[in-house]
Design a protein that fits this description.
- With 200 residues, the protein is an alpha+beta fold.
- It has two domains: 1-71, no CATH class; 73-200, OmpA-like domain (60s Ribosomal Protein L30, Chain: A, 2-Layer Sandwich).
- It is built from five helices and six strands; from the N terminus they run ααβββαβαβαβ.
- It has a four-stranded mixed β-sheet. The chain has a two-stranded antiparallel ribbon with strand order 1-2.
- A hairpin with a 5-residue loop joins strand 1 (75-76) and strand 2 (82-83).
- This is OmpA family protein.
């Protein structure tokens, strides 16, 4: 009987890990591990980081202008300055990946569409910085981080019209974690490609 209980407990733990890693406590569609505002009220439109998007004006004359600002991104440059320079609350858009994968998900494609829309008509260079968690050899992780950056570049270029020559790639492997590699959620946060604006 004890052996049966042990097996059941082990199975529960194994199946609970993905649920924790992909949980969404406030139900806004943004997983908790990348939700900057984990207690967003139900029904509020949110941006990619889980925080409330700027509400569009109900005035029909200003609706289109407000709608544009609601989806605008305040990005960071590789010099840690905001882009555009007059925006506030700058963030680094990030594309996250499953373990040992370089596949760009549909959710991430939606974020990349916003980035491309933000940069349409602006002749700026983008830096894509690829990262992995700590599992695997240094060489394998470097190549995986490079592949992740290349795949994000391919989506930006092939799907959303950002000229490939405007995209720089950098690979860091597991050398620059943003969270602990001791937990599944921390490792999930580390499997990422960061998008920054390059300053000459």
């Amino acid at each position: 009987m004890r052996a049966w209980h042990s097996a059941a407990l082990l199975l529960c733990c194994l199946f609970a890990l993905p649920a924790v890693a992909n949980s969404d406590e406030d139900g806004d569609g943004v997983p908790d591990f990348k939700d900057a505002c984990p207690a967003t009220p139900v029904g509020i439109a949110v941006s990619a980081n889980g925080c409330a998007a700027e509400a569009a004006s109900s005035d029909s004359g200003s609706h289109s202008a407000q709608a544009g600002s609601a989806t605008a991104l305040c990005m960071l440059t590789d010099q840690q300055t905001p882009y555009p320079a007059d925006c506030s609350g700058a963030e680094v858009p990030k594309v996250y990946f499953e373990f040992a994968s370089a596949y760009v998900s549909m959710e991430s494609s939606a974020l990349l569409a916003r980035v491309a829309e933000q940069l349409k008509g602006q002749m700026v260079t983008i830096v894509l910085r690829g990262h992995t968690d700590i599992i695997g050899t240094s060489e394998a992780n470097w190549h995986l981080s490079r592949e992740r950056a290349e795949n994000v570049a391919a989506v930006l270029s092939g799907d959303f019209g950002i000229e490939r020559q405007r995209i720089l790639l950098e690979s860091f492997g597991a050398s620059e974690p943003v969270a602990s590699n001791e937990t599944p959620i921390g490792r999930q946060q580390n499997r990422r490609v960061e998008i920054l604006i390059h300053i000459e």
